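FORM 7B: Structural annotation worksheet

SECTION A. Query
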Amino acid sequence: MELIDTHSHIYAEEFDGDREEALARARAEGVGKLLLPAIDAESDERMFDLARAEAGYCYAMMGLHPTSVNDNPRWREELQRVERYFAAPPAGVEFCAVGEIGLDYYWSEDFKAEQREAFVEQCRLAVRLDLPVVIHTRSAWDDMCDILEAETTRAQESGGRLRGVLHAFSEDAATYERLRACGDFLFGIGGVVTFKKSALAEVVKQMRLEDLVVETDAPYLTPAPHRGTRNESSYVRFVAMKIAELKEVDYEVVAEQTTANAKRIFNL
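SECTION B. Predicted structure
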């Protein structure tokens, strides 16, 4: 039964010693595709190289991460770079989404205006391109909900659509319902759902399987029973297993539905 890891940084330096082995382990565990979120110009080439080497298995995104806006006097140049790549993709690379983009006030609240501007601009780019967005949110959920409500309405009024995935979702049921009401958004569930006393576990019980995709965020947010070690895409099965336990359904049901959800939203 196929799974899709919808969020993996397996191109990162943490995998330089055993990337091929990590990919082989993912395949052996039934992971049929990996989606690679962009961060900024410093890691672009690493991601492109992997997407080319693993064409049909690893799919690249393009976008500017919110923390790469912080204290970066050239962040608008980075946004222009994102647009240039969509206009003329690197040889052998097709982009499946605008991502990873969003808001992150955890490290600093000094760049809220800049992050919001970058996020809104990239959402509007996604609407023009008719591509999904992959959204990172940390310590900024109220602003995120406000912006998505406004931007989905704006897109609809212009005859377009804003859709995508709320990566690493770990908020409460009320936030889930508010974001669901915005339109066609799915929720990326990762290793946090497997943690002991995870509040997300109770929320997942109330979420519809039709709204979920599974992810690792490798090498981060490693699920139990491997918490404390480097995460990798083969571990996405532990996330699916936990969702199955919480929803009281067979693992195959979760795998089939989350894979179908990912294929639809990313047009895979």
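SECTION C. Observations
Strands lie at 3-5, 31-36, 58-62, 95-104, 133-138, 164-166, 185-189, 212-214. The chain has a mean pLDDT of 97.

SECTION D. Sign-off
Analyst initials: ____
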